[in-house]
Amino acid sequence: MTKRRLFIAVNLPENIKKKLIDYQRKWIELDPKYIHWVRESNLHITLVFIGYVTNDEMYEICNLVKEKAKQHEPFFINLEKIILGPPEKTPRMFWVEGAKSQELADLQNDLENALSGGGLAKKEIRPYKPHITLARFKYEIAKSLPKVDELFKVQFAVETIEVMQSNLKRSGAEYVVLESVELGI
């Protein structure tokens, strides 16, 4: 039986993706064997990581996402800065941190509760911290990187959420939108 690796995400507008790729170019001198930059097409904010599911479970997930999306109106996300994260540990990523958003937190919580209640995803133990991963790097270079705390003030509207499939390949993950769901409809 074939299984798909799924997650639910907020995809970014193309103009914001382009700005983030410009930021990545600032760090081009870092050794590629220690750092893996996220491709432009893969930049997103994960709401819920689901994992491997069957086709039947995928359809059930898509239906649950549609149901929950109807209960949430479109809203705005404010991105604030680029840092090394996670901040409370030895950093392993470049990421974009956003301002706290009650609308985003409510949407994420509703989705996670619906999916975990239906046995389709595990409830995350760690508190939800919305972020956009720009790169992952190996521990060997973590201590040699300078402190990164750069302003990245951008606002964008969240009008849809996507059920995404992650195809893991040697060249890195490739993401495919399985279902794009409008909020509030």
Number of helices: 4
What is the radius of gyration? 17 Å
Q: Give the total of domains.
A: 1
Q: What is the CATH topology classification name? A: Cyclic Phosphodiesterase, Chain: A
H/E element order = EHEEHEEHEHEEE
CATH H-level superfamily title: Cyclic phosphodiesterase
Low confidence ranges: none
Report the span from N to C terminus.
34 Å
Please provide a brief summary of the model.
This protein has 185 residues and is an alpha+beta fold. It has helices at 14-25, 55-70, 102-117, 139-142; strands spanning 4-11, 35-37, 44-53, 75-85, 93-98, 131-137, 149-158, 160-167, 174-182.
Descriptive labels:
five-stranded antiparallel beta sheet; Cyclic Phosphodiesterase, Chain: A; alpha+beta
Present the secondary structure layout:
Layout: E1 4-11, H1 14-25, E2 35-37, E3 44-53, H2 55-70, E4 75-85, E5 93-98, H3 102-117, E6 131-137, H4 139-142, E7 149-158, E8 160-167, E9 174-182
Structural description of this entry:
With 185 residues, this protein is of the alpha+beta class. The protein has helices at 14-25, 55-70, 102-117, 139-142; strands spanning 4-11, 35-37, 44-53, 75-85, 93-98, 131-137, 149-158, 160-167, 174-182. The chain has a single domain, classed as Cyclic Phosphodiesterase, Chain: A. It is built from four helices and nine strands, in the order βαββαββαβαβββ. The chain has a five-stranded antiparallel β-sheet. The protein has a four-stranded antiparallel β-sheet with strand order 3-1-8-9, with helices on one face. A hairpin with a 7-residue loop joins strand 4 (75-85) and strand 5 (93-98). The model has no long low-confidence stretch (mean pLDDT 92).
